[in-house]
Design goal:
2 domains, five-stranded antiparallel sheet, four-stranded antiparallel sheet, 7 helices, 19% strand, DUF3325, transmembrane, transmembrane helix, membrane
């Protein structure tokens, strides 16, 4: 999906460039008719719309727009920095008059040096143009999925809202600078739910009030994260509790199966209980 998004945006900006008189003359050698240039610009806008649709289908409306914007930025780099300058220089060289030489040997030497330099620059450009998309594609493929998109993420409902919650690292809680063990979780509510939710909290042990609901989830709607404290007296029987406050002032809480959402944390709490 990411590669398709990058390819479509690249073709879109290539169409925009060929729809401009200057770049069309450099690349094609001729200036297309005004109607054809207009058609190329329209094709560029259509391809950008297709790319946005690809982003939204792949990552949702919010994240898809961000991916679409990033793909446009990446697609313009080789086009603006390498491809168009190359054709512009080639067009200027072909239009410039040949420099007279003082003798046959001098002319052959200059021609050989120019040919060698041209081949070296051509090789560098080809290497960059091949390596840059390949590197970007490798990075896209190897980026780990968001925790809430993993198979071990746990889906549930709190009040009228559905959610997916996951352990961020799959590791046991780690001590912080203050010596208290900390554990990170990520939650994502359904798209329509976010506009109805004021804040969400997470903690070990059932909260008695909103003031003691635990650590608040922070970050954008697709990456709400909370780092909760694991007290030395915590037990697995206390449970992991998600508390959500709605825009209308309502408060809902639900217990989450800690052994399912974070087996490493469950084992950690079991070990704590054994030491107690």
């Amino acid at each position: 999906m990411a590669i398709a998004l990058l390819v479509v945006t690249t073709f879109a900006f290539a169409a925009f460039a060929l729809g401009m008189e200057r770049h069309a003359k450099d690349v094609l050698g001729v200036v297309p008719a005004p109607r054809r240039r207009l058609g190329l610009r329209i094709a560029g806008w259509v391809l950008l719309a297709v790319a946005m649709a690809i982003g939204m289908l792949g990552w949702g409306a919010t994240v898809g727009v961000v991916e679409w914007t990033g793909a446009m930025t990446v697609a313009t780099v080789p086009l603006v920095m390498l491809v168009l300058p190359y054709y512009s220089r080639r067009h200027r060289r072909s239009a410039a008059p040949a420099m007279p030489a003082s003798g046959p040997e001098f002319g052959e030497l200059v021609a050989a040096r120019r040919s060698l330099t041209a081949r070296l620059w051509r090789g560098v450009r080809v290497l960059v143009l091949v390596a840059l998309p390949a590197g970007i594609a490798w990075a896209f493929v190897n980026v780990p999925p968001s925790p809430v998109q993993r198979d071990d993420a746990l889906a549930g409902r709190v009040g009228p809202w559905t959610f997916v919650i996951a352990d961020v690292t799959r590791k046991p809680p780690e001590p912080s600078a203050l010596g208290t063990a900390m554990k990170a979780f990520q939650v994502r509510f359904c798209t329509g739910c976010d506009t109805q939710i004021r804040s969400a909290y997470l903690k070990i042990r059932q909260p008695r009030s909103l003031r003691g609901a635990g650590m608040v989830f922070q970050g954008p709607s697709w990456n709400r994260r909370a780092d909760i404290q694991i007290a030395p007296t915590a037990r697995i029987e206390d449970g992991l509790w998600l508390t959500v406050e709605g825009m209308d002032g309502s408060v809902h809480a639900v217990e989450i199966d800690l052994a399912r959402v974070s087996p490493a944390t469950a084992r950690y709490l079991s070990a704590l209980t054994g030491r107690q």
